[in-house]
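Duplicate of earlier report; Putative DNA metabolism protein input re-posted below.
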Amino acid sequence: MHVFICENTPNGILTGVYDAWELKIQERCSHADIYLVSGQPDNYELFCDYHTVAPSAEKAGKVVSTLNRKLGHDFYETILTAILSIDLSGKKKMDKANAVYQTIVAALHSPKGARVLDSLSNPYIYRVFELSRATASEAHHLKGFLRFSELQNGVLFSTIHPKNNVLPILAEHFTDRFPQENFMIYDETHQLAAVHRAGKNYMLVDASDINTELLQNYSENEARFQKLWLAFFDSIAIEARTNPELQAQNIPKRFWKDAVELRHFCE
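Output:
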C-alpha cells in the first residue's frame, strides 16, 4: 500500500492526485493500492510506503485542466467544494483526499464519465457528494447572509465565521457582483482573507496577524446607515408574534454575530 500525505488544501490534495497517478503508472500498481491522506495520519501502519506530497501549483493545475477538459467544469466544482470541506468526521470515515482520488479514478475509467457522480452506492462517490453538499450549502447561505460595511478608507469589509473553507467560493461570487469595488472578506475561523481591488481579480492572503481594531473604523455614512437599518428592523417587528425558533431556521444562530441587526443577541 502506498500512502500519500497531502497538505489539507486544494493545491495539496490535487498535487497528491497527480503524484499518486504518476506512481501508479511507473510501478504498474492498482489504484486500490493507493491511499491519500489530508494532513498527518494518526497512525503509521506496517508494510505501507509513505510519500510526503509537496504542494505544486503546476501539478495541481494539470489535474484541474484534465478534469475540466475530460469531465467538465461541474465535475471539477464538485471535487473542489469537497476538498474545501472541513471534514469534521474525517477520523470516523474515509479521508476526503482518498475519496476525491478514487472518485476521479472512477470517473476517468468509466464510460459514464462525470455522470458517475450519480452512483451514490459507491462509498467514495457518496463521501465526495456528502462533503461537497456541506460546503456548497454553507456558501449558498453566506452569499445571502454576508454583510459588507464601509470603512473610513472606502473599502467594503465583512467578517465571516464559516465551518468550511468557503472563502474562495464567496470571493469569486462577490468579484463577479462587485467588480469595481475594493472589498475584503475576513474568514476569522480559518484566519484567511480575500482581498479584491477594483477592476482586478481577488487574492487569498494569510490574515493571522490582521488588526481587527482598525477594521471597526466605519465611515460616517456606514454608521448612519447601520442606525437607520436597526431602526427599520425594530419598527417592523411585531412583539406579539416573536418566534425565535423560526428566526433561527431562517438565519441559523451561528451567522447572527456577523449580522448588524442580530449581533446584539449574541453579546
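The chain has a mean pLDDT of 89.

Merging into the original ticket.
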